[in-house]
Amino acid sequence: MSEDKIGMGHGAGGEVMSNLIAETILNNISKKSVDGGVSLDDLDDGATIPLGDYEIVITTDGHTINPLFFPGGDIGRISAAGTINDVSVMGAKPLAITNAMIIREGFPIDDLDKIMKSLDETCREADVAVIAGDTKVMEHDKIDELVIVTTGIGIAKKGEIVRDSTLNVGDKIIVTGTLGDHGMSLMSFREGMEFETDLTSDVAPVWNMIKEAIDLKAITAMKDPTRGGFANAINEMAKKSGVGVLLNQEDIPIKKEVHAASEMLGIDPYEVANEGKVVMGVKAELADKVLEIIKKNKYGRDAAIIGEVIEGEHVLIETPVGGQRILESPIADPVPRVC
């Protein structure tokens, strides 16, 4: 792909996408914040609008999943969960989403019905309303099946927003479950490996899993590791915070099915999208309590403390043989169109 044209890597959540956003998108937007709230320049999971004693959190997401239906979910569930989760990891209670759809002419109405029911079920799980939307239809050869764009709205008390850029040296790093499930399940399904593994997507709304930990005021920074996976999320958090991170490889939860599929396909599970997990920095003295809270939820049973924040500028992984290696941000997500 020519450097002056958009390629798949520009939407994959790694360095290529970051460069496009910084050099082409942000440079052409003049006003990027409201009344000192979290701005577009911050590139957090959402932005905020201060309003009296509260801050309104807003985030927006486009979804182009292939296939639309996959083991463990569909484009309706991922559209709702992904947007709800972006609001949630800002420390805000998700209240509502909007839903815009661009549908290919000839798309089966029965499939659209299933997708809308799935979106609604996911929203009800997090007590989120669908309050507005838009529907467009395009000629059958002008769009690939269905694109959904959702915007999420949440609320938090002023001063209680959680950022992805506020890790502190000494914080413990927690992941709320096994990594790589979503991206590897979709890739395995595409490659016809679904009969060789029971691997399914982790797509789920995380608010009910993390809200008690948020109330504890123990979380210093938070991010959901979607495009670019865990590797991109933890590197972004460390870089923005001006710190290093030391992880213990043996403590990082990854299912054996993900290990097997990643080896067969030559894909690093740290670099593929997750759709129902959170990466968080937690005050060291409260880390065990936070872990206990998260593991009580059905989506957090495999949560683990996997490392700590250190001085430095790299994310390091301590290997089982006692060595260390640098975990770098991916150039792009190796599994395109998974979210």
Please identify which CATH superfamily of the largest domain we are dealing with: PurM-like C-terminal domain
Name the structural class.
Answer: alpha+beta
DSSP E strands, number: 14
Q: Based on the structure, what is the oligomeric state of the protein chains? A: single chain
Strand neighbour order, sheet with most strands: 9-11-8-12-10-13-14
Tell me, briefly, the overall form.
globular
Name the helix and strand elements from N-terminus to C-terminus, one letter apiece. HEEEEHEHEEEHHEHEHEHEEE
Q: Could you please say which CATH topology of the largest domain applies here?
A: Phosphoribosyl-aminoimidazole Synthetase, Chain A, domain 2
C-alpha-based Rg, rounded: 19 Å
Helix share bin: 25-40%
Terminal Cα separation, in Å? Answer: 22 Å
Low-pLDDT stretches: none
Number of domains: 2
The CATH architecture of the largest domain comes to Alpha-Beta Complex
So how many helices? Answer: 8
